[in-house]
Amino acid sequence: MEIPEVARELAGKDRIGVLFVCLGNICRSPAAEGVMRHLVEERGLQERFDIDSAGLYGGHAGDLPDHRMRVHAIRRGYGLIHRSRKVRMSDFDEFDLIVAMDHSNYDRLRDMAPTLEAQRKVVRMIDFVGGYPQCDCVPDPYYDGAEGFELVLDLLEDGCVNLLDTLSV
Ligand code: 4NP
């Protein structure tokens, strides 16, 4: 696990905005949003965090998360009600940290970033994951079976704890 410096620098800030990003915003990033919201609420930190998610592909805009993602998430206690939306240029201003699920998401976000400061806000989810050395990203489960969705949740539960620990010290 290599926690990015930009995340450590946010620790102690009054209000922190975190945007999770994947391709479609119907599987991985809404699940990340759900896991993170759950942790934030569990710790009573709602006043300190703005949590949202978005996708680089806008084709599912307005949709609820994929049914399979919702089924796997609710079994672990995460009700996913986010409506898919595309990443906007204003996100680079509004959020402090933009967390990419895979390397393609990361590269595209870094390319889109309007300033160097905005580019620094883009980090990889996997950098916060401690327990899965075999994974180098949060893989797209869209064409996988149930085990793909379970792996996404395993990675996100691990990573979101470390992310929140880093930001909330
Ligand atoms: P996500 O999964 O990026 O985790 O939301 C995907 C969902 C839809 C598509 C690709 C990935 N799609 O191409 O429609």
List keywords for this structure.
alpha/beta, binds 4-nitrophenyl phosphate, single chain, 42% helix, 169 residues, 4 strands, four-stranded parallel β-sheet
What do these coordinates show?
This protein has 7 helices and 4 strands, in the order αβαβααβααβα. It has 169 residues and is α/β, with parallel strands linked by helices. The protein has a 4-stranded parallel beta sheet with strand order 2-1-3-4. It is globular and about 40 Å long. The chain starts with a helix and ends with a helix. The model has no long low-confidence stretch (mean pLDDT 97). 4-nitrophenyl phosphate (4NP) is lined by residues 22-28, 55, 57, 59, 140, 142.
In short:
The protein has 169 residues and is an alpha/beta fold. The chain has helices spanning 5-10, 28-42, 67-75, 91-94, 103-112, 116-120, 146-167; strands at residues 16-22, 49-55, 97-100, 122-124. The protein has 7 helices and 4 strands; from the N terminus they run αβαβααβααβα.
